[in-house]
Amino acid sequence: MSTSEIQLKERIKELTCLYEVSSIIGNVELDLIEETLQAVAHSLKKAFQYPENTFVDFIIDTISVSSGDYFPNDLKIQSDIKIFNKIQGELVVRLHNSDAEEINFLNEEQLLLDNVALKVGNLLERIEIQKNQTALKRQMERADRLSILGEITAGIAHELNTPLASILGFAELLKSDLDSDKKASDDLQKIIDNAIYSREVVKKLMFFACEMPQEMKHINIVPILKNAINLLDATFRKEQVKYLVKIDAEELWLRADSIQLTQIIFNLLINAIYFSPKDGLVTIEVYKKKKQIVLKIYDEGKGFDLENLDKVFQPFFTTKPTGDGSGLGLSVVHGIVASHKGTISAENNIKKGAIFTVTLPEN
How much is the pTM? Predict the structure, then answer.
């Protein structure tokens, strides 16, 4: 076979490889990236002059695909894999140079490698975009659900407020008229107590729906946080839970309602204490980030089941046993944070437990 025929044959192999690679990565699924890279490596191996002696390796972040073992005398060419113009890995082709004959790479094979690396980089960029779009879609769907829940909750709260006020008012009038009848008076007191409890539930519903009036002032979160921790010190000791406070500075100012800010801190700390094991540690961290104040509360409990993460801030959702909670505490916190134009998120800690992150604007 003449030299020109050999060269033509190699060019055909390279073009066939590029066509195959384009086909392989054209409609890849997110969860099949490793299998896709293996298919690309197989196609690339066939395109080289000595396929039996050629080995292809992808090294990308946590993904590693190799088509063969390393040998000391291997020749090597490589090309960087860039994702959004940043080098995130490399594509390496090794040629096992046996003692029987001296073989080497063709110049065109480096060009082929660069081409395939570019295509793989484009694929990984596309996957990153899809992941971000999926995450954004989930966030928007969750925000929509919470918004609808907020509207329904506000309606329920308003509808319940009027009859509860009437029950409470008439029960108190009757009680004053029946002071001489102890049994009737005791029964009326039960009605009053339950009406007051119901009114508090409605108030929490209104907090979730951002319907409570606010007194917004320029305040320092540090003394409010310290005061809340001091008030809960006895609870920490009673439940045998330790706490650690990390404060970035002695003055961290933001515009907020001090009572509602205290309620955020209280609810999150009580929740952390409840789920902490004995001798567990609750870490409270507050710091400034750009023009925002960030409050983080870590616990060492069992964390969240993945299917419950999206439900954490929904009213009446709770993982506590019946009678231990109404499922309104975290929804109230969400409502207050939203009314302050802030954000709150819940996630599992890498080690153990859960992390709640509240971000509030300075102004």
Answer: 0.47
